[in-house]
Amino acid sequence: MASGPLDWYCRPVANGTWAKTVDSTFGAYTTCAVDSLVISISHSVLLGLCIFRIWLMNKISKARRYRLSSNCYNYMLGLLACYCTAEPLLRLVMGISIFNLDGETSFAPFEMVSLIIEALAWCSMLIMICLETKFYIREFRWYVRFGVIYVLVGDAVILNLIIPMRDYYNRITLYLSISMVFCQALFGILILVYIPNLDPYPGYTIMQPEFVDNAEYEALPGGEHVCPERNASILSRIYFGWMTPLLQLGYKKPITEKDVWKLDTWDQTEILIEKFQRCWIEESQRSKPWLLRALNNSFGGRFWLGGLFKVLNSFPLLYG
After folding, report:
1. I need a surface site. Which of 3, 108, 174, 229 has the fewest CB within 10 A?
2. What's the pTM?
């Protein structure tokens, strides 16, 4: 085969076992394509999700943390994650390849990359599980579980690839491959049905929903808060992320007037009227006063942006 970066990375064997036995459009590149596009990507997704949740666990406030009532379930998950971390490392150290059926003396680069990503993904999962024994958060847990499902889909593809070729493997290689899939499948089942019993984090109490009749409402933490929209980032404004604290409070209990943020000065009617009147007086002194110019001087970009949204909203109503 012609030399090149792809051939160096995949090391395809022309007329090799995989090319002759497996009916695939990738031909001799089948193992490289499946391992890179399925296993490496699925484990990279799981790695990213676990790292983000670990970062979230350390960043989130203590008031939103919990303690597990029992760590036994996490210990069991930790043992499975530990095996899933050790298995690719063992294969890497011992030189046990599930794709080398033609007597190559070393790993192909694609398989080494895949094994390293796989070990890192499950190592991050193990770290996350260990942290959960110290404190637990509800946020982002289902994303990690969907990442595990994605990995299991990749495992099914690999298993479907190697089972028909089982006569070409020795017992150790076949045992390691199947045991890895079994442990990951068991881990996936256990984590999907896992609904932990949570206790309050030391020094905090879990807020329970209350009925309107006897509810005693509390203002947002810190007393009178000014609406955070003005200082929110662009993404936060687009997705209304700045409203998250108020929405979380509304999820826990009915919101009252004193729970709502105080208007920022740029939204207060008195300030807006005073500013517009000042601009209009200045505009009135011109030879040709123009209301639009006064509005622009009063409200600036907010006036034009609001007008643009109004026009875009009106078109579907008129012509829809």
Report:
1. 3
2. 0.61
